[in-house]
Amino acid sequence: DVHVATRPGGPWPAGPVVWHDLSAPFGQPALRWTRRPAVARLAKAVTAQIVLERYYNFGGEGVLAARALGVPAVLEVNAPVIDYPGSPKARLDRALLIRPMQLWRDRLCRLTDLFVTPSRAILPEWIDDQRVLEIEWGADVDAFTPPPPGPPPVGKIPECTCVFAGAFRAWHGAPLLARALARRHAAGDRRFGGLFIGDGPERAEAERAAAGVPHVTFRGALPHSAVPGALALADIGVAPFDAGRHAPLNLGFYWSPLKIFEYMAAGLPVVAPALPRLQRLVEHGREGWLYDPADPHGLEHALMALADDAERRRRLGAAARARVVRDFSWAAHCAALDARLRSLVTA
Asked: Phi-psi bin for 215: left (phi > 0), alpha (psi -120 to 50), beta?
């Protein structure tokens, strides 16, 4: 049985999960930790055997509730617990002399039985590796599927549609794709089109960069259920991350890139920068095409390499689908998580 305590804002998805509205006091996330008694009461009422909390700088209510009840505490960590070089938060903490924020984080980490994270690098070094489950998030491989097999429509225009799906934050790199498409069009290359799904602060810049380029569409934010159908219109899934524009990524590319996993599930070859962690998720030349992020034309050259060979795109997309079903599906994620949670309960 799974019970979720979260801030109000349903309606929640139907299914076996029981949802409980539990917002931070006065709507202030910085006061979330004060909800420890409420979380403990809820956990006791449902006879919880494990309390899992998603890490937040001013959280800790789940970990403390678990300790109060004497059950294992699990912390899901997908944002750095440690401070990145030059962090304003670290400077403020030092100015407060006793570093209260670091002390609080260290206390929560000492009370945690298991850390669930896509990257060990964002946890304090002193944490025992036996308490860490390093695991990727996943794609819904039943919702995201390749289109039915068959030849492409005769005279398909454009020949090669590149899709970007995301939140248009600075480090997501959507304008990089828009500029690459504009350069190909200016060079007389009419093979490419672009499909941009999502919204966010960089959308206006991307739209300006692609102004006047034919077959480029900005769909805006779509319900998640509509994204698989949109990806079915594409030939290449592009994740042009610009890691230099997000200071915490100095610690390494630490989050699980859901857009990449969903591209792969949809049978699309992935184009992305050859960052060390992405090289472990997408094998160059087998499941996608990775480019040097320091090369200002690297993205453009990667797109051209796939546009030139439809059979290569098909082969890469099929391998990407097989890989994500095996390694990066929610089923694979949950099987690994379930095994570790059960081991905590029976220990």
From this structure: left
The CA distance from 177 to 155, in Å, is: 24
For 162, the 3-state DSSP assignment is: strand
Point out which residues pair with 6 in neighbouring strands.
Answer: 21
- Closest to 181 in 3D by CA, of 201, 200, 208: 208
Q: In this structure, are residues 309 and 316 in contact, taking their beta carbons and an 8 Å threshold? A: no
For the chain, give the number of residues. Answer: 347
Whether this model's pTM surpasses 0.85: yes
Cis peptide before 85 (omega within 30 of 0): no
CB 211 within 8 A of CB 217: no
Tokens of 248: 């915490």
Residue 253 CA to residue 256 CA, distance in Å, equals 9
- DSSP string of 215-249? TEEEEE---GGGHHHHHTT-SEEE----GGG-GGG
Sheet containing strand 132-134, strands side by side: 51-54, 73-76, 114-117, 132-134
pLDDT value for 156: 67
Computed over every residue of the chain, the mean pLDDT equals: 94
Does pLDDT of 47 surpass 60? yes
By DSSP bridging, strand 270-273 and strand 236-238 are: parallel
Mean pLDDT of 150-161: 70
Q: Please report, as a single letter, which amino acid is at residue 170.
A: A
